[in-house]
Amino acid sequence: MARVTGIGGVFLRARDPKSLLNWYATHLGIVPNAWGGAKFLWTDELPPATGSTAWSLFPQDTTYFGKDHQQAMINYRVDDLDALLAQLAAAGVTIDPHREEAAFGRFAWITDPEGNRLELWQPLVPPKP
């Protein structure tokens, strides 16, 4: 049977695509390719072979995404959540003060200049045997 094997892309609407792309490059390190998008390879995950992408549906009345008009939220894996949040705070980025910790990682949320709520996730590194 044919099936989905992962997330092939994430696409956002933007009032000012060029400016928003610059914001993502400056603050989250998402550097665009020549075609104006970014390609994420799982080869840079530490420890190796731990990369995965989650896909999930939420009820229409969820408050998890923030504002009612936001129809999607992206979760970005990060390598150092505390350092990234410090950088973002210094740059004046809107940061939700709420944090969560789970058995599989730590979470924080920020808002981009167009009001999109973004989730930042630092996976926990499994202990060495």
What secondary-structure arrangement, pairings included, does this model have?
Layout: H1 17-28, E1 74-77, H2 81-90, E2 94-95, E3 100-102, E4 105-111, E5 117-123
Parallel strand pairs: 1-5
Antiparallel strand pairs: 2-4, 3-4, 4-5
Task: Throw out a few tags for this protein.
2,3-Dihydroxybiphenyl 1,2-Dioxygenase, domain 1, 129 residues, 2 helices, globular, 18% strand
Q: What's this entry about, in short?
A:
Helix content is 17%, strand content 18%. With 129 residues, it is an alpha+beta fold. It has a single domain, classed as 2,3-Dihydroxybiphenyl 1,2-Dioxygenase, domain 1, CATH 3.10.180.10.
> What is the number of E strands?
5
Rounded mean pLDDT is 84
Using the 3D structure, state the CATH architecture: Roll
Terminal residue distance: 37 Å
Spell out the CATH superfamily.
Answer: 2,3-Dihydroxybiphenyl 1,2-Dioxygenase, domain 1
The low-confidence runs, each spanning 5 or more residues with pLDDT under 50, are none
The fraction of residues assigned to DSSP E strands is 15-25%
Q: What is the CATH C level class, in words?
A: Alpha Beta
Number of helices: 2
Number of domains: 1
Helix percent band: 10-25%
CATH topology: 2,3-Dihydroxybiphenyl 1,2-Dioxygenase, domain 1
Q: Radius of gyration, Cα only, in angstroms?
A: 15 Å
